[in-house]
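[09:14] KT: can someone run the structure on this one? pasting the chain below
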Amino acid sequence: MSDLRKNLLAEAKRIVIKLGSRILVDAGNKGVNLEFIKKFAESIAILQKAGKEIAIVSSGAVGTGMARLGHAKKPQNIADKQVCAAVGQIDLMHAYRNAFEKEGITVGQILLSAEDFRDRNRYKNLQNTFNSMLKHKVIPVINENDSVATAEIKVGDNDKLSSDVALFWNADLLLLFTDEDGLFDSNPKTNPKARMLNLVPEITQEILNLAGKPGETGSLVSTGGMHSKIEAVKAAARSGCNAFLANGTKILPHQVLFENAAGTLFLGNAKKLGSRKKWLSFVSTPKGSITIDDGGVNAIRKKNASVLPVGIESVSGHFGEKDLIDVKDSKGNKVARGISRFDSENLRKIIRAKNQKEAIHKNDLVVF
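[09:31] RB: done, structure tokens below
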């Protein structure tokens, strides 16, 4: 292990740990993998005694409910999925509480939806709640509110949720535990000579290509595949948070920080974003988008300009005044994100109009 890798991991103080469904669900015993959670709680106790602050993003509710209700594969009907989540969430949290209680640690559940990140006031309130829990030595166990979530209010998968949590909490390290050893330079399932990457300085398109296609999971119980994990890492890294991908069936959190455990470390950007910029750029879920011409793209990227109606080519979706929206170029690439000064209906009326106030003021805009 290089000194850089060793020091970055050992010195991380604020850590978000994401556990995948394949680690947490014991389909054979119809429920939670109790042996894993026992070992996991013991590992977290080691980290807490070393002065680390921990938050857990836990998958497994739907998978645990599937095992409890006898589903061989994930239901396609959203109502059936939500029943699985409702049943599984109880078993999962019961297992966490019992395991952590034996280590003298209190855990508390937080269920989230995209609205908790999208609305600035709710976002700040969530930060306050989170910090208060940690002040009282309560470890948050976080999941999306799958039992009631719909497409409009879903964060996405728990890989994205874990990066969102890492961002709003200003975490030093995001640990993603799956049943893969790390990121390889080719598919280890088809290439026995595939080499695991120990250190990734930057998430390039080449790195994304190594992660496979969006939506590939290889599991009956999980939602996000390797591509989802690397996208989550990319979001965290761009804000300055380091990330580590490891096999949770072989490795525990304290071994990553203190025992030279195998896995892939992704370096975060040296320059960290402020809280508002993080909210604007990565955490929040936009309610619509606008497309701007090449002149507009050049102005916001090179001149730190506001988005003006004269440069807008089209408006997509339905959003209100002060809602968060994406800004795209004529090819559909996202170039920025910001808070609209008009609702979608009124913004459509002033497309290409001159001498109008800013559609998005530069102070409410973050450029990618």
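[09:33] KT: thanks! The chain has two domains: 3-277, 286-367.
[09:34] RB: yep, looked fine to me
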